[in-house]
Specification:
Helix 2 runs antiparallel to helix 3, helix 2 runs antiparallel to helix 5 and helix 3 (77-98) runs antiparallel to helix 4 (102-125). The chain has a two-stranded antiparallel sheet with strand order 1-2. The model is unreliable at 1-27 and 129-136 (pLDDT under 50). 65% of the residues lie in helices and 3% in strands. It has helices at residues 16-23, 29-67, 77-98, 102-125, 139-170, and strands spanning 3-5, 11-13. The protein is mainly alpha-helical and 192 residues long. The protein is elongated and about 80 Å long. The chain has a single domain, classed as Up-down Bundle (Four Helix Bundle (Hemerythrin (Met), subunit A)).
């Protein structure tokens, strides 16, 4: 069974349907759409987890600020990233509803790359990541690392979602049903 990071950064379990969606080959356009919906649900769950982790990070940073601990990034940073994660979730929902829409897919890819980039910068700015202290003693660094892991999983799932949506668009539509005894029409015959 695949593991996921809960909002507290502790590994948890991925729901069986989400783990299975990454392993099941799609056999038709309808199957691809069903699996794409499972991918979307897993993605939205991961992004909700990222928002929870960012909320914990904001709380940690407020405590550090109160205690006088210097910080490289502003207190509003986690909330700005929460907004970016929510915007990405909205784009992914719109993409799943619209089907294989290249502009929406490109937007989702760009939004995720920007989100990951900002988290990577934040990780590199934490003292625990530069060797000044161990990450275990820096709850902010541990939360940022957990967010990085979750976003790595989001990349894989997002690629899967986009691929499945593309597959569902390329699958041939089922032929319309004919009444019993009705002769085939030119529409019903396969192209030559």
């Amino acid at each position: 069974m695949a593991t996921a990071s809960r909002s507290d950064g502790i590994p948890g379990s991925t729901p069986p349907q989400a783990a299975a969606s990454a392993q099941q080959p799609a056999t038709s356009g309808h199957d691809s759409l069903a699996v794409a919906r499972q991918d979307l649900d897993a993605l939205l769950g991961d992004l909700a987890g990222v928002c929870g982790q960012l909320e914990e990070l904001a709380t940690t940073w407020r405590r550090e600020h109160t205690s006088g601990t210097p910080r490289q990034l502003p207190l509003a940073f986690p909330h700005r990233l929460q907004g970016a994660a929510r915007q990405l979730a909205g784009t992914l929902k719109a993409l799943a509803e619209a089907g294989p829409e290249p502009d929406l897919a490109a937007s989702a890819v760009a939004q995720l790359a920007a989100l990951r980039g900002e988290v990577a910068v934040a990780v590199s700015d934490r003292p625990g990541q530069r060797g000044d202290s161990t990450p275990g003693h820096d709850p902010g660094a541990a939360l940022l690392t957990g967010i990085e892991h979750t976003l790595s999983r989001v990349i894989t799932r997002q690629q899967s979602l986009i691929s499945r949506l593309d597959d569902s668009a390329e699958a041939p539509a089922p032929a319309p049903a004919r009444a019993r005894g009705e002769p085939p029409t030119a529409r019903d015959e396969p192209p030559r």
